[in-house]
Specification:
The protein is mainly beta. The protein contains 1 helix and 10 strands.
Length: about 120
């Protein structure tokens, strides 16, 4: 049962930008805090950006000032605008709720590779 679908990843040079999209059930993104997570090879999945139903946002220090999380409730879509990308941003990016009790089945994620 597919609930979360990430897209928009790809190969980009350092300093470049990407915009990731997450299609999620509307009832979820309108009620629960949502987040973008990433997992690099050999590392644990980490939350990099969070947005509440009211629009408040939080970012991991590693991406603060470079990434912007947003959502379009009418389109049931959440976004992650990534600017000034660095090689260390290379990871598979996932979306999900940012509330452990309401975590949905993880999607396949979208690969972001920052390299020359």
């Amino acid at each position: 049962q597919v609930q979360l679908v990430e897209s928009g990843g790809g190969l980009v040079q350092p300093g470049g930008s990407l915009r990731l999209s997450c299609a999620a059930p509307g009832i979820i993104i309108n009620i629960y805090p949502m987040g973008w997570y990433r997992q690099a090879p050999g590392k644990q999945r980490e939350l990099v950006a969070r947005i509440t139903s009211g629009g408040s946002t939080n970012y991991a220090d590693s991406v603060k000032g470079r990434f912007t999380i947003s959502r379009d409730n009418a389109k049931n879509t959440m976004y992650l605008q990534m600017n000034s990308l660095k090689p260390e941003d290379t990871a598979v990016y996932y979306c999900n709720t940012a509330l452990s009790a309401t975590t949905l089945n993880w999607g396949q994620g979208t690969q972001v590779t920052v390299s020359s």
